[in-house]
Structures are given as C-alpha cells and as structure tokens.
Amino acid sequence: MNSEIDKTAIRHAATLIVLRDRRTEPRILMGQRGAAAAFMPNKFVFPGGTVDPDDAHVPLAAPLPTLCSARLADSSEGITPHALCAAAIRELWEETGLILGHLTDWQTPPPDWVTFARRGFIPDAQSLQFVFRAITPPGRPRRFDARFFLVDADAISSDLDDFSAASDELSHLQWVSLAQARQFDMPFITEVVLAEIE
C-alpha cells in the first residue's frame, strides 16, 4: 500500500453559476473545457477558476451579503470572502464575457482586471449567494478548494447572449435547462452542485 502523502497544493478557487428565467424556465450558463486542459478536459462546467492575489484588493461596488460573507469566513482559512467573490466575478468575465458589476470609472485596476475596467465597471458582489464548497480529492493532478456562488441573471450588467468578449478557455457557451444539463459530460461535483441548486 502506498502511504506517501499527497503533496499536491490545494489552491483556492471560485465558481459562478448564473441562473436565468428562475421563475419560468430556469436555465444555467455552462461551457466546455478544452480537450488539452490539464484539469477536467472536455467536461461541461460553470465559469470559474483559481483566486489571484490581486482579487483580495479590487474595489467592490457592494460587498457580499452579510450572511454569505459570514458563512464563507467560517471555513476559509487563508482566504477572504472578498477575494473569493471577486475571483468568481473575474472568472465569469474572462470565460464568458459577461459583466457582474456597477458602472463607474476605475482608474488603476490590477492587470487581470484591465479589460473589465475598460468596459466602465467595477465588480459588484451584492447579488451573489454562496451555495457550496468542494475540495478536490487526493490523487488528482490539480487540487482546488472551490466555492460555488449562485447569481440571478437579472444582476448581470451586459447582454446575456453576447459572449464575444470571452476568452477561449470555455467553448460551446450556452444557456441550458437543469434537465438538459444532466445529459452533458460533467464532473461529478458539478452534478452534485446542480442537485443542490434544484
């Protein structure tokens, strides 16, 4: 039996689930990871990724709701709720081109936020709801301590169907019903989070 301790560093990460038409025909935004991705290749996922050091210092138009911030702080050693929600908003922008923010002039954004700021926005966390936390099991090539947030699509400041500013990290970006999403090739944890949302 191999008793060697898994030394893969666990990185903090944040994921944002955008829910559209909640009261009529609920749909969520998903995309497909590339075949060459080191982590979860070809899988359909929600927008998300690793927290960057600058995420802890970006201005927020409004902070997380008090309850969400308290829940995050209870189990977030070494990371702040501010950094986690900022990372979720940044990853949404980078991977989909959608903006969760407030119109204002942002003069000195960190490098990873420059394109977001050029659109005339700063991030706004008041509509985020913390729904789930998951830590990648040992033995995987990459490990993440991921927090999943939910936001109503009505809070998005940009066109919900315009993905033209998205990076190429996710392909096949689309709004899918919860039932349709279950037909996709998803990581197990994504299926668990879907059940939690339902």
Give your account of this protein's structure.
The chain is of the alpha+beta class and 198 residues long. Helices cover 22% and strands 27% of the residues. The strands form two sheets. Strands 1, 2, 3, 4, 7, 8 and 9 form a seven-stranded mixed sheet that branches. It is globular, with a radius of gyration of 16 Å. Mean pLDDT is 90; it is low at 1-6.
Give the number of DSSP strands: 9
Query: Which shape, going by the Cα principal axes?
Result: globular
- Helical proportion, percent range: 10-25%
Q: Which structural class best describes the helix and strand composition? A: alpha+beta
Please give the oligomerization state of what you see. single chain
Average pLDDT figure: 90
Q: Strand portion, in percent?
A: 25-35%
Distance between the termini: 40 Å
Question: Can you describe this structure in just a few lines?
Answer:
The chain is an alpha+beta fold. The chain contains five helices and nine strands, in the order ββββααβαββββαα.
